[in-house]
Amino acid sequence: MHQTTTPPPEEGGTDQRTASGEDHPFLALERELSVFLRRARASSGEMAREVHPELEAAAYGLLVRLADAGRQRATDLAAYFGVGKATMSRQLRALSDLGLVTRTPDPADGRASLVALTEEGHARFSRVRDARRGQYMRKLADWDRAEIGELARLLHRLNTTLGG
């Protein structure tokens, strides 16, 4: 068993390592991200099924991106999510088959197309997103809004760092 001279950082201590050299902040980050990612995967599956019973959990993130950023090329979506073109093509085909997205020619390059939510896709997605936002608001009601903003900022920074 190892001991530190001060409490771990997550408990207000300043010593960053245990006597055996373990780094508390990174251990805590790994632990919390593991739990968060497990819950996020389950949540994405639930939300995907609420949008459409046949929608894959992984495709839910595409709907989020298209709703937030608007029309996009498939190659840009693949780069954003860090997946290959074949994976992106398969997911977009599934979304198209479900009537949730559509492709239109890219006016800047006739060889490419732009992917966008259909009216149906937008309506279904918005309904689920609004319900989920309501759940977050209820569950985080006792959090200070500045803390929620800081969490969003830090998650954005983490996503940017890990994605690049």
From TrEMBL:
Cross-referenced SMART domains: HTH_MARR
InterPro entries named in the record: HTH_MarR-typ (IPR000835), MarR/SlyA-like (IPR039422), WH-like_DNA-bd_sf (IPR036388), WH_DNA-bd_sf (IPR036390)
GO MF term set: DNA-binding transcription factor activity
Annotated ranges, domain HTH marR-type: 30-160
GO biological process, one term: response to stress
Region (Disordered): 1-23
PROSITE patterns in the record: HTH_MARR_2 (PS50995)
Pfam families in the cross-refs: MarR_2
SUPFAM superfamilies in the cross-refs: Winged helix' DNA-binding domain
Pro residues: bias regions: 1-10
PANTHER family named in the record: MARR-FAMILY TRANSCRIPTIONAL REGULATOR (PTHR33164:SF57), TRANSCRIPTIONAL REGULATOR, MARR FAMILY (PTHR33164)
Protein's name according to its UniProt entry: MarR family transcriptional regulator
Taxonomic source organism: Streptomyces mobaraensis
Organism lineage: Bacteria, Bacillati, Actinomycetota, Actinomycetes, Kitasatosporales
